[in-house]
């Protein structure tokens, strides 16, 4: 158990009190031997360690970045998503904290058990709807009377956006999220028992001039099979093993298809504008390239190779002699 460290002033005050008789040394010893009691609320059981909460935070910070890209691309307007907080609370407390009328998406996350809930603030939900229908992304709240078309459009966009969460979770487990239900009244939801511990990830989201919150509620039963993977030790242990051979091969094949600008410079020279204007046939321009020195091959404006000129099958060509390492000076 960690002990409190007293400052010099506190030590002096304590010694002064003991010497003056204001405090009794025997009473102090008695207080130290007494057991200290701390109140524990069983209704608010903490089932995740701080280390595991940090792991959940890292995953959803990545999800926030992916969701920002998804919304910006699909809505074609400024979008920003960031993690505001990550807390563990009873399910009942979470339900009481969200509006009585809001947008609720319930997803199954096979092969994990249970379901997770994504609650979208109406301000954001209607800003997305307005933008998809050709508007400027103005927010308006009429959750009580959603039409079938509005419900379909909203559920479709939230169902597509869940692929970002699937990608963010892929470092821990491959999930197959499926939209099971779309609801507007949280009182109709009973995913787990009221006292069940859930992790609530709150995201700040801005779309155009509208802003609001998205809350992701994940019950303990969903995270229980992978809870050991949420620690820093697991992340550090697997950091060096993240690269798969097939991923390296795929990246290499994609790089080989990239088009780059490669040019061999025969030489350079500087002349005045007057000399340029009076150039005529048989004039000779003196280059700064010595005949016994190799040519420089540039790749996207960067000197990359030294080469010698020649021919191959009656075509001009260069033969690479060596590579110019980064940091070498070339004159």
Automatic annotation (TrEMBL):
Localization per Swiss-Prot or TrEMBL: Bacterial flagellum basal body; Cell membrane
GO molecular function: cytoskeletal motor activity
GO BP term, pick one: bacterial-type flagellum-dependent swarming motility
Annotated Flagellar motor switch protein FliN-like C-terminal domain residues: 254-324
The keyword Repeat belongs to this UniProt entry's keyword annotation: no
Topology relative to the membrane: Peripheral membrane protein
Domain of life: Bacteria
UniProt entry keywords in alphabetical sequence: Bacterial flagellum, Cell membrane, Cell projection, Chemotaxis, Cilium, Flagellar rotation, Flagellum, Membrane
Record GO cellular component, one term: plasma membrane
Family matches, as InterPro entries: CheC-like_sf, Flag_FliM, FliN-like_C, SpoA-like_sf
Keyword RNA-binding: no
Homology family: Belongs to the FliM family.
Protein name according to UniProt: Flagellar motor switch protein FliM
Organism: Salinibacillus kushneri
């Amino acid at each position: 158990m960690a002990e409190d460290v007293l400052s010099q002033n506190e030590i002096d005050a304590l010694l002064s009190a003991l010497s003056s008789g204001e405090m009794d040394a025997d009473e102090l010893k008695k207080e130290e031997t007494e057991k200290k009691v701390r109140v524990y609320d069983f209704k608010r059981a903490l089932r995740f360690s701080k280390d595991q909460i940090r792991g959940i935070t890292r995953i959803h910070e990545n999800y926030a970045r992916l969701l920002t890209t998804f919304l910006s691309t699909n809505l074609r307007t400024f979008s920003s998503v960031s993690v505001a907080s990550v807390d563990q609370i009873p399910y009942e407390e979470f339900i009481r904290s969200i509006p009585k009328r809001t947008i609720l998406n319930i997803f199954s996350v096979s092969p994990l058990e249970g379901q997770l809930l994504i609650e979208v603030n109406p301000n954001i939900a209607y800003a997305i709807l307005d933008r998809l229908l050709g508007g400027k992304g103005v927010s308006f709240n009429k959750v009580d009377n959603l039409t079938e078309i509005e419900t379909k459009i909203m559920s479709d966009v939230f169902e597509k956006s869940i692929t970002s969460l699937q990608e963010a979770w892929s470092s821990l487990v491959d999930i197959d999220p499926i939209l099971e239900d779309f609801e507007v009244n949280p009182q109709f939801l009973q995913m787990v028992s009221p006292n069940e511990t859930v992790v609530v990830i709150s995201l700040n989201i801005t779309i155009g001039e509208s802003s609001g919150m998205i809350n992701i509620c994940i019950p303990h039963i969903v995270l229980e099979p992978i809870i050991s993977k949420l620690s820093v030790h697991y992340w550090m242990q697997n950091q060096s093993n993240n690269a798969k051979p097939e991923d390296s091969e795929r990246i290499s094949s994609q790089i080989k298809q990239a088009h780059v600008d490669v040019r061999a410079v025969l030489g350079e020279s500087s002349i005045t504008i007057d000399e340029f204007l009076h150039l005529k046939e048989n004039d000779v321009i003196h280059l700064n390239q010595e005949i016994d020195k190799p040519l420089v091959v540039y790749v996207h404006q960067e000197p990359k190779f030294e080469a010698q000129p020649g021919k191959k099958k009656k075509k001009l060509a260069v033969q690479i002699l060596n590579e110019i390492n980064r940091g070498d000076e070339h004159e």
